Amino acid sequence: IDEDGYNFSNNLNIVPGGTLNLPINVTNTTGTTAHYEVWIDWNGDGDFNDPGEMVADLSDDGAANFGQNTIAISVPQNASTTQPIGLRARLSHTDNMSPTGPALSGEIEDYLIMIGCKNPVCLPLQFTIK
Known about the structure:
Layout: E1 2-3, E2 19-23, E3 26-27, E4 35-40, E5 54-59, E6 70-74, E7 85-92, E8 107-113
Antiparallel strand pairs: 1-3, 2-6, 4-5, 4-7, 7-8
């Protein structure tokens, strides 16, 4: 089994409260069910252990058919917009993987993504009056 990765274009417009649509690009010629699990570190604390950070848990039919071509992920309103945050995708014959640790098959892909601000500004604004 293999995934060719995501192509994060600059025009994904990932914003708090929006939707991130990730394409599924997986090859599975094994005839055995593959499991595809994705995590995003929404708060930027360096781990995938917080509630809501597992954003996808899919299983195929043994031939890379997950019943959908994209994963629609709701971006939380409080997602970090001040730093790159991690996205981890794991593909394996092992189900219910954790974001870290070994699996008997498959692979992991890691990416850093940026959550942008809603136009015209990021809220909340902070002012200092002198």
